[in-house]
Design a protein that fits this description.
Number of domains: 3
CATH architecture of the largest domain: Beta Barrel
Low-confidence stretches: 7-12
Strand order of the largest sheet: 4-17-18-19-15-16-5
Oligomer: single chain
Largest sheet: 7 strands, mixed
Distance between the termini: 48 Å
Shape: elongated
């Protein structure tokens, strides 16, 4: 055992300085790696080893890892668990290894993150986006692509044969040719994201709208011809379209272009699933930086977990194993939950979005006033 990483509560162990060096010596440790609060205790560590004439390991101190939008203190994490703010130590919102694993973080992404930030003696806070970018980079190479609709809106192609099903070939991972391809089914009725349709779109909205043509991923160009609404609420319940059979594969023989490409799932073949959208556990970058009389829990993010039911997914996603990871096209990276997964009731956790959403949020926030000393 050449190395040992040590962290302990010195206030609870008054004889720690006496026992620390002897324990390391007995175990044959060559380098005792500690956090910075032990730096002032190193002289005692060295003195005891020298006076006792025992094997003398070298103690080295380093700054502990701190991340934005979370807390790393075991005491505070325990409080969050015991008070029911999270579901347990493996809650995907916690920075624990079991929580990160359940959320879909890979071992490689965590190792790459640690290599990138390195070891330092300077107390600092690492932006969570550095860890997330390491994960995106890893999953972009390894995660197969699938299509899933989280907020479904039905679309009917009026000029498509009612009983016909067309098999279309889709790429599993454009970053990895060895991942191969898969077959997906295209039918007269399918689902798109509700946010991908607007009746009265703003100028830079390039998705589906009345009279507008868009591309369906791997499939055809479709044009919105009609909208079916709920008579009571006025909510859009269904969109009617026409399709151009000559545009199969996503390009037009006459060379016309469309700006919007939408993902979709066949209504006849979709499976229903629950999708859990996990986000930062805290709203502020520094949760422990609070006003007098408040504590870090006042910064808890009430939207850190959103559960969506009746999501529509590709049928291939029914046969996956708990813990398997995928990129849901245009939505982010997701994994099959390792605790609540059931073959007849699939549950997927959002691991990370395709882009850093919180960077935009931070830009929109006013600069906080400096506290008076």
């Amino acid at each position: 055992m050449p190395f040992k990483f040590k962290r302990a509560d010195k206030m609870r162990h008054p004889i720690y300085d006496f026992a620390h060096g002897q324990s390391d010596s007995i175990e044959g440790v060559t380098h005792s790696i500690c956090t910075l609060e032990f730096e002032g205790h190193r002289p005692l560590y060295d003195w005891y080893c020298e006076q006792l004439g025992i094997h003398h390991p070298q103690q080295i101190e380093f700054a502990r890892l701190n991340l934005t939008y979370t807390v790393m203190s075991k005491r505070k994490l325990l409080q969050l668990v015991e008070e029911g703010h999270v579901s347990g130590w493996d809650d995907p919102r916690l920075p624990t290894l079991c929580g990160l694993r359940r959320r879909g973080y890979t071992a490689e992404s965590i190792r790459n993150f640690c290599d990138e930030i390195g070891v330092t003696k300077f107390n600092s806070v690492t932006d969570l986006s550095v860890l997330e970018n390491s994960l995106r980079s890893d999953l972009n190479r390894r995660a197969e692509r699938r299509m899933a609709v989280l907020h479904p809106l039905k679309v009917v192609i009026e000029n498509f044969p009612e009983e016909e099903t067309i098999t279309i070939e889709a790429i599993n991972n454009p970053e990895d040719e060895s991942a191969g391809k898969r077959d997906i089914q295209f039918t007269r009725e399918f689902y798109i994201e509700r946010d991908d349709f607007m009746e009265d779109p703003p100028k830079k909205f390039f998705r589906l709208a009345p009279g507008r043509e868009v591309r369906l991923r791997y499939a055809y160009f479709v044009t919105c011809t009609d909208v079916i609404k709920d008579e009571t609420t006025g909510e859009v319940m269904e969109v009617r379209c026409s399709y151009d059979p000559a545009t199969r594969g996503g390009s037009a023989p006459d060379g016309r272009k469309v700006k919007g490409t939408l993902h979709w799932v066949s209504a006849a073949h979709a499976i229903d699933a629950e999708v859990r959208l996990y986000d930062n556990l805290f709203e502020q970058q520094a949760p422990e930086d609070v006003e007098e009389g408040e504590d870090y829990k006042s910064n808890l993010n009430s939207n850190s977990l959103v559960k969506l039911s009746n999501c529509k997914l590709e049928p291939a996603l029914k046969a996956v194993k708990p813990g398997e990871q995928f990129q849901f096209e245009r939505l982010g990276y997701f994994c099959a939950d390792s605790v609540d997964w059931q073959p007849d009731a699939p549950v997927f956790n959002r691991t990370v979005a395709l882009r850093d959403q919180w960077a935009r949020i931070e830009k929109q926030r006013p600069t906080p006033k400096k506290k008076k000393r």
